[in-house]
Write a structure and sequence with these properties.
It is a single chain. This protein is of the alpha/beta class and 820 residues long. The chain is 34% helix and 22% strand. The chain has 26 helices and 27 strands. Strands 1-9-14-13-10-12-11 form a seven-stranded mixed β-sheet, sandwiched between helices. Helix 10 runs parallel beside helix 18 and helix 23 packs across helix 26. The longest helix is centred in the N-terminal third of the chain and has 20 residues. It is globular and about 75 Å long. The N and C termini lie far apart (69 Å). The relative contact order is 0.11. The structure holds zinc ion (2 copies). One zinc ion binds next to loops.
């Protein structure tokens, strides 16, 4: 393999890297906090006497001399037939906890079977490799996913005893064909759900329903498999696990594995220049900004000071040096030190930008290392991804900039440092990403680099919010009718639904089935509900609303990758700049009918930002809390969003070069929202002039969207907002924050239940920002479809103070939730 040998690792060096970085005075000023996470001693246990001796000897040969107590405890529960969730840290050996009982059973009982579910194909492949490396001829393990060739699928059904797959394949491939899988399902003893904290939001709700379908089909074949779940450390893992599976499980969450010490630094890039100045006068007060999961990343600009004109953001706001630019520098420096480093970024585009910038940086200092840095992200073709994973495993790659695609992916133990460019949305993800660093028992370094964003700003200045609180539970809502109904259709198409089945699918199942009968989707017969259509129901469980849009190079016909349908309007509209592996392209046509975007290679010195228009209509308020001059509501809304234009902005300064209209159809979304309304009296008392109200609510709304992820396991791209000085449905000044997925994902509900805490953190984040009149760290939003106008930062703080004074605590579990 023509690459140079891996630079020899010196563990003592890692511990001093942070010190050396901090000696650089510019960097020292940016480090807001260093947490020394102490080392932990391991608590070994004896191998269980019931464990298969061959399996034990192979595990020992693989270097596991003794198991840790948490592994044995989880294994015992599963072995005794009880469902269990093992919620311990990254690299705590969760797989031993489930492989011990599962493989022991498969070896002891040739007719028994097990399914392993991973959220990604990469993770399933990785597990397959480790199971096969045990060389147990009595266990026939195989993956079964979209990449499995036809003839091999038949072999898997007939002969495999351990099938590694994903929820998508269970949903589309296995459950609809359960008759062909009958022998397998008759022997099914265990279902392993790995990385189960990753099943959140709408996707989590879909997976919960798929697992209910699996349980129902298994029951028809006379089996009740034991669920064994593995999770990152989260609050209340038992509750999440039983919501996901519908069955009660034991909880094992005392991590007994040893861990080396870790220095965890919080890092805030500097403001590049502060300009005084007021934003221009408001035109209207309606906020815009649909959810845009993984959309373009304003960090991409990578601006830097020295000698250049002072860069500024929208409406002359000061900007911080981009987290991606800062992380790219850290990556280059760490790689130059021989420190194996992984940078986690928030968007596909940022992965490209960071890898390219680090390579440029190394080009001057250490040209021989340039080829050992790469990008890795979702949207690459499978061959590309596999090749990168291989090079990372062997150590041929020293530095990688990755999206969270890798967070769930391959086993890449042997890293020394992680740089996390932007809070990854949840504390569980943050710790999982940080936990990637640290070879067994050795010192590791993690750096969270704040993005120019209110949540990140809040966190780097409130270390207690990172290090001093329990990790949030996964939020998802299995009862979302938009999720439940299509799965009831799927279930009925698999086997007619009976009365007894309804309980399995939750409290909303009865009403949903009646509705499906009225709409002619199901037919009621004496023996149950039957699926009426010839084709199978078409359900997209990744919740992206339609097939992904393919990105095709016009000149060559080459398929570069894909983007989600939901984000395609704002990311690959005609004229948009698209990045792939460091190369840039301009979209010349977005064909919505065929779901394809044609692009041409180009290297413009601008980036593009979509302008959107959003309206919101209240369908129903289902819960509310009323106070003097303030009402808080949770309910159903209809959001209409249209991408109407895009701006070109200079890459280096963010300067707006021009705007062009777009002709894209509006899209509608019925979802859940939390909103608050205030009276004119409250606004007057808070000394907010009528002309400043639109800017005040717009700013308060942006910041609230930015801070909600602190209370719900979402990120700001999963939610949207609308604010207005007078909403026709409420008759008052109103701020809405809505779930960006049809039917809702539970995020708005969390906001409602924790509203006082949420708005308090929002107020604090805005008030603490040192900018004069609003910047991306407080009230500007990277996805504002209104170009961040109008925004009134000071008035927003007064508004939030007044709201908080009126609201006396969270309505979580109010005595009697009011329906209207
Ligand atoms: Zn600010
Ligand atoms: Zn906005």
């Amino acid at each position: 393999m023509g690459s140079p040998a891996v630079t020899e690792h010196d563990p003592a060096r890692v511990g001093t890297v942070l010190n050396r970085l901090a000696r650089d005075s510019r960097r020292a000023a940016n480090i807001t906090h260093v947490e020394s996470v102490p080392a932990r001693r391991g608590q070994p246990a004896a191998w269980p006497e019931w464990a298969d001796p061959l399996l034990v000897s192979r595990l020992r040969a693989a270097g596991i001399e003794q198991p840790w107590t948490h592994q044995v405890e989880a294994a015992r529960a599963a072995h005794e037939g009880r469902g269990v969730v093992l919620a311990t840290g990254t690299a705590s050996g969760k797989s031993v906890g489930y492989l011990l009982p599962v493989l022991t059973r498969l070896l002891a009982e040739p007719s028994s079977r097990a399914i392993y579910l991973a959220p990604t194909k990469a993770l399933a492949n990785d597990q397959l490799r480790s199971v096969r490396s045990l060389m147990l001829t009595g266990v026939r393990a195989s993956t079964y996913d979209g990449d499995t060739p036809g003839p091999e699928r038949e072999w898997v059904r007939a002969h495999a005893t351990f099938v590694l797959t994903n929820p998508d394949m269970l949903h589309r491939g296995i459950l609809p064909a359960h008759r062909r899988w009958a022998p397998f399902l008759r022997g099914l003893r265990f279902v392993i759900v790995d990385e189960c904290h990753g099943y959140r939001g709408v996707f989590g709700a879909h997976v919960a329903q798929i697992l209910r379908r699996l349980r129902r089909v298994c029951a028809r074949y006379g089996t009740r498999p034991v669920f064994v779940l593995a999770s990152a450390t989260v609050a209340d893992p038992g509750l999440s696990a039983s919501r996901l599976t519908g069955v009660d499980v034991d909880v094992v969450d005392a991590d007994a594995s040893p861990r080396g010490p870790m220095d965890f630094a919080l890092y805030e890039p500097p403001l590049l220049g502060v300009r005084a100045g007021r934003p221009s006068t408001p035109a209207d007060g309606t906020e815009v900004g649909g959810p845009d999961v993984g959309g373009p990343d304003v960090d991409g600009a990578g601006v830097d000071g020295a000698g250049a004109p002072v860069p500024h953001g929208e409406n002359d706001a000061p900007v911080r040096r981009a987290a991606t630019a800062e992380s790219a520098d850290l990556l280059a420096d760490l790689v130059a030190e021989g420190v194996r480093t992984l940078v986690f970024v928030r968007s596909r585009r940022a992965a490209e930008v960071v890898a390219a910038a680090a390579r440029r940086g190394l080009g001057e200092a250490a040209p021989e290392l340039v080829e050992r840095v790469a990008a890795y992200r979702a949207g690459y073709l499978p061959e590309e991804r596999r090749s990168l994973e291989g090079r990372l495993r062997t150590g041929e790659l020293l530095g990688v900039a990755a999206t969270s695609a890798l967070e769930l992916g391959v086993d890449i133990s042997g890293l020394d440092a992680t740089v996390i460019a932007g809070f990854p949305g949840t504390l569980a993800s943050l710790w999982q990403q940080a936990g990637r660093a640290g070879r067994t028992g050795q010192a590791a370094l993690a750096v969270l680099v704040a993005r120019d964003d209110p949540l990140d700003t809040y966190l780097v200045h409130h270390p207690e919010a990172v290090f001093g609180r329990p990790i949030e539970a996964s939020v998802f809502d299995p009862d979302n009718p938009y999720v439940l109904m299509p799965h009831l259709e799927c279930a009925a198409s698999e086997l007619p639904l009976t009365e007894d089945d309804l309980e399995l699918f939750g409290p909303g199942a009865r009403a949903a089935v009646d509705d499906l009968v009225r709409r002619g989707r199901l037919r009621r017969r004496p023996t149950g509900w039957f699926w009426t259509q010839r084709h199978r129901p078409d359900v997209d469980i990744r919740g992206v609303g339609g097939p992904p849009v393919r990105i095709v190079e016009t000149a060559t016909g080459r398929l570069l990758g894909t983007v989600d349908a939901a984000t395609s309007h704002s990311t690959v509209h005609a004229g948009a700049v698209y990045l792939h592996q460091g190369a840039s392209f301009i979209v010349n046509e977005l064909d919505l009918d065929d779901a394809v975007a044609f692009v041409d290679a180009a290297t413009p010195d601008w980036t593009t930002v979509a302008r959107e228009h959003t309206d919101i209509r209240v369908v129903e308020s289902t819960r509310s809390a009323r106070f003097a001059d303030v009402e808080i509501h949770l309910g159903t809304v209809e959001v209409t969003n249209q991408v109407i234009a895009f701006q070109r902005r200079r890459l280096t300064t963010g300067e707006v070069l021009g705007q062009e209209p777009l002709d894209l159809p509006p899209r509608q979304l019925r979802t859940r929202a939390v909103w608050y309304t205030v009276t004119d009296e409250l606004l007057a008392a808070a000394q907010i002039e009528p002309a400043d109200v639109p800017g005040a609510v717009h700013a308060a709304e942006h910041a609230a969207i930015g801070l909600l992820p602190l209370f719900a396991t979402c990120d700001r791209w999963d939610i949207g907002g609308v604010s207005t000085d007078l909403h026709p449905d409420t008759g008052r000044t109103s701020v809405f924050v809505y779930d960006g997925h049809a039917g809702g994902a539970g995020f708005a509900e969390r906001g409602f239940l924790r509203v006082a805490n949420w708005l308090r953190a929002t107020r604090d984040a805005v008030a603490a920002c040192e900018c004069p009149a609003g910047c991306p760290s407080c009230v500007q939003s990277p996805k504002c479809g209104n170009g961040n106008e109008p925004l009134e930062k000071a008035a927003a703080v007064r508004l939030l103070d007044a709201v908080l004074a009126a609201v006396d605590g969270d309505p979580a579990d109010p005595p009697s939730p009011r329906r209207e």
